[in-house]
């Protein structure tokens, strides 16, 4: 069992930055692939980024590649999402998720555990 708690969301102007954190409970955090997803009002949940258990492999959605960076600290049971050059279209609730499957996946159905989400609002 893994429990996930996101933090770091907020309001920022376009071009600004935010760093999201996701703290995980449980001793097996390092065994999980971790991902970030987002959901804007009236839209489906969208993949943002994923990172392998070791942190050695990452995978990004095309819309955020080059602007967002996913990382993890297994000693702190925490995964991060550094978001730079934010755009109004990045506005959404951001969720972190954990998958026991080792594959980096953009499919939300492969993730086993989810956090409650944190709101990110980017104004123009």
Describe the overall structure.
The protein is mainly beta. The protein is 0% helix and 48% strand. It has no helices and eleven strands. The protein has strands at residues 4-7, 10-13, 18-24, 33-39, 46-51, 58-60, 68-73, 78-83, 92-99, 113-114, 118-123. Strands 2, 4, 5, 6, 9, 10 and 11 form a seven-stranded mixed beta sheet that branches. The termini are far apart.
SSE blueprint:
Layout: E1 4-7, E2 10-13, E3 18-24, E4 33-39, E5 46-51, E6 58-60, E7 68-73, E8 78-83, E9 92-99, E10 113-114, E11 118-123
Parallel strand pairs: 2-11
Antiparallel strand pairs: 1-3, 3-8, 4-5, 4-9, 5-6, 7-8, 9-10, 9-11
Instruction: Supply the number of helical segments.
Output: 0
Large-scale geometry? globular
Biggest β-sheet description: 7 strands, mixed
Class by helix and strand content?
Answer: mainly beta
Question: How many DSSP E strands?
Answer: 11
Q: How would you concisely characterize the structure shown here?
A:
By secondary structure, the chain is an all-beta fold. It has no helices and eleven strands.
Describe this protein with a few key phrases.
4-stranded antiparallel sheet, mainly beta, globular, 11 strands
